[in-house]
Amino acid sequence: MPAKGQGDSLKRISKFLALILRHDPGAGNIRLDAEGWAEVEHVLPALATRFGDFDRARLEEVVRTNDKSRYAFNPKGDKIRANQGHSVPVDLGLPAVEPPPVLYHGTAARFLGRILEQGLNKGKRHHVHLSPDIATALNVGGRRSGETIVLEVQSRKMQGHSFFRSANDVWLTDHVPPQFLRVLPLSIPPR
User: Fold this and answer.
1) Torsion of Cα atoms, 57 then 4 then 142 then 101, to 10°
2) Is CATH 3.30.470.10 correct for 103-188?
3) CA–CA gap between residue 45 and residue 73 (Å, rounded)
4) What CA–CA distances, in Å, run from 92 to 81, 83, 84?
5) What is the pLDDT of residues 138-186, one digit of tens each?
6) Can you name the CATH fold of 7-82?
């Protein structure tokens, strides 16, 4: 766990790491390979420029303490990448796998009308992100402002749709048509 007072700092660092590893590598003057990996030796100076003195141990702490396990090192430990959520072209090399019978998606209630018409769309990201349980979906959906709702996805019934499972247990698919969605009778009021 981070030392007292370091949580906000680690959260800011993690957000910047998400930016450069998922959306804008140029913001950190780094390059991602075709599978989304960046050289640790290039990521460390990007973090040091933004946050001051920054070493490998601190980067490992950010990866280890991230509440969503967003990042991973390759087996040699010389590269790092985001486990999913990219808006830049990468191929994570995840094999298609059979999903569980149901998955979940947390979001803000204000999007419900559009979702029930169009289904869940990936937007600018590579995939729609689904959670394996209701608690995780509530947590994910709670990051948006407004009332949080959870949708149940009848994933096993989605014949012809490929599903992938990221290293941090996020389920990914290209689109969830509305006929496979059910609004759960629970919601969390705005924070």
Assistant:
1) 50
2) no
3) 17
4) 9, 8, 8
5) 888 877 777 899 999 999 999 999 999 988 899 999 999 999 999 998 6
6) Arc Repressor Mutant, subunit A (1.10.10)
